[in-house]
Structures are given as C-alpha cells and as structure tokens.
Input
Amino acid sequence: MEHITSRWGTLVLIALLDRPHRFGELRREIGRVSEKMLAQTLRTLERDGLVHRDARPVIPPRVDYSLTGLGREAAERVRDLAHWTERRLAAVERAREAYDAASP
Amino acid sequence: MEHITSRWGTLVLIALLDRPHRFGELRREIGRVSEKMLAQTLRTLERDGLVHRDARPVIPPRVDYSLTGLGREAAERVRDLAHWTERRLAAVERAREAYDAASP
Output
C-alpha cells in the first residue's frame, strides 16, 4: 500500500490515469521530483505490476509508461483518496488550529 | 494523506469504523503497535479532526476514541484501498517474481 500512497507513487498513478506518458512528460507534469526519484518510483510500480514500461526500438529511444489493468484499479482508488484529501484540507487545517489553541 | 495511509493510521481508522474503542482495545486489536506509537497516531488523527477523544471523569479514568464525520469519510476510503490491496496482493507478488526473474 505504501508504494501507491507515497507522494510520488500517487502523482504518477494519477497522471497515468489520463493517458500514457513518456518519462520527460511525467517529470514536467509532476514537478519538483528528481530524475532519480521518478525513475525509482516507476521501477517500483512496474515491479508491482501496476505500470507497464514500453521501450520502442527507435532512434532516439522512446519509452512510454502506462497503467496495467491492476494499476488502473489502484490509481482510481488512490485518486479518490487524494481528491478527498484536497477537498477536506481546509477542514483539517481548522481542526489543527483548534487543537493547537486548546493544547497547553 | 500520509497520516491516514500510514500503517498505524490505516489500522486505527479501520478499527474505529466498526465502533468506538478504548486505548487498550485498540492496542490489542491492532497488535504489534507500541503504546507510544499508538498514542502518537491517535494524537495526530485527533489533531487532524478525524478522531474524537472522549475522556470520562470516572475512576478509573476512561478514554474512548471514535471517528468524527470527517474521520468516517477518510476511514471508508482508506478501508476500500486497504481491502483492494489485500485482494490484489497475490497478483502483485506474481508480478514481482516475473519482474525479478527477467531482470539481469
């Protein structure tokens, strides 16, 4: 579960729900992720059977990443959770302020 | 999001979906969680407005933990994701074995 709910795992899965992406596209879309961290995230998701890596034998080499059927199931659930978190962030912030104000 | 998808955060939310729990009940039900880690998890979830802590002025003191409305929304989504993960674990394991066998 931690692979799909990690910061970068979640963002990769949500991006791929839209359509397949090339490495550079993912990097631009996700933002602030290092090349190394993105490569490691993709490798983990590929190893888990959630992401399919398609390397085309063309010049220059072209690699596309897409969701497998399993990956799509995971991505839809993770997106639902991430969107819920975004929608409720203001309520969570208010709760934290109230908690901190009441704490000695 | 990491508060509700952490190992202990997820297990606490799922346990509380059933019914309110006392601290000791949670500890027994979750298993292998230290007292300190469980207390910290509950404090984080309470501060986020997901868990309500009800301390009764009785002797001996009695403290019940329950979900708030916000917590119930989070818990249902997290449970859905955790159950999906359990159901798909065998498929993920098979994917990992295939990946490792194909890797140099």
